[in-house]
Automatic annotation (TrEMBL):
SMART domains given in the database record: AAA
GO MF annotation terms: ATP binding; ATP hydrolysis activity; transmembrane transporter activity
Keyword entries, A-Z: ATP-binding, Nucleotide-binding
Pfam family, one: ABC_tran
ABC transporter domain span: 5-231
Name of this protein: ATP-binding cassette domain-containing protein
GO CC list: plasma membrane
Native source organism of the sequence: Niallia alba
Domain of life: Bacteria
Length: 231
């Protein structure tokens, strides 16, 4: 494959039988990304932006089109037809996802969450400990919170932890779903620094943002979505 990711004629709809509604979320979406590129998607809430990321990540199954990804393990693979086992491997080792929301196992501390993400990559305990402390410090998460449960964190603290957990793995493909939604200016700057660093190291990214200023000089290309199609 010439590109790391090729989305061809992607369409996704939802049939809400109980409400008697048929909703077309996205139609005829085409995206190509080379390794190390960053594509940004803008648009109003409800325009279908997040649906694209969830189709790539395998959370949604699509009705039409293909999502070709050049996997390190599997070679070129159509994510729209990948098995659950293949998707679980890719999520653990190659494809990262950052959303506005933090879903965590109960009784798991912030430090444990990030360390587990690194250990999943086959790294040893010593490396995982060091990298965890570096990234938690980078996002200025108070040291007193490192061994606390994230359920007690503020929205901004949860979001910073969520970003740290995904970025510390340095995935080949990183999907960013409004990663700066509830962050202050300084936290946004730290996210941007890490994104720039990952891009230099070859991570390919697709990001959804309302903050157009944040995207400035960051994306290789930008798409605007309106009513499920690129305008």
């Amino acid at each position: 494959m010439e590109n790391l990711l090729e989305i061809k004629d992607l369409s996704k709809s939802f049939d809400l039988h109980n409400l008697g509604k048929y909703i077309r979320a996205v139609s005829h979406v085409n995206i190509e990304l080379k390794e190390g590129e960053f594509t940004g998607i803008t648009g109003k809430s409800g325009s279908g932006k997040s649906t694209i990321l969830k189709c790539i990540y395998g959370t949604y199954r699509i009705q039409k089109g293909s999502i070709w990804y050049d996997s390190k393990k599997f070679g070129p693979i159509n994510l729209a037809q990948a098995t659950e086992r293949q998707m679980l491997y890719l999520r653990k080792h190659e494809i990262g996802y950052v959303s506005q929301f933090l879903n965590v196992m109960p009784r798991t501390t912030a430090r444990q969450l990030v360390q587990q993400a690194i250990l999943e990559m086959g790294k040893d305990q010593s490396f995982a400990k060091q990298e965890t402390e570096m990234i938690l410090a980078h996002f200025e998460l108070d040291k007193e919170l490192w061994d606390s449960y994230p359920t007690t964190f503020s929205g901004g603290e949860k979001l910073r932890l969520n970003i740290a957990r995904a970025m510390v793995k340095k995935p080949r493909l990183l999907l960013l779903d409004e990663p700066t939604a509830s962050l202050d200016h300084d936290s946004k700057r730290k996210v941007r620094l890490l994104i720039e660093q990952l891009m230099k190291e070859g991570t390919t990214m697709v990001g959804i943002f309302h903050d157009l200023e944040f995207m400035n000089h960051l994306c290789n290309r930008e798409y605007n979505m309106q009513n499920g199609v690129f305008s």
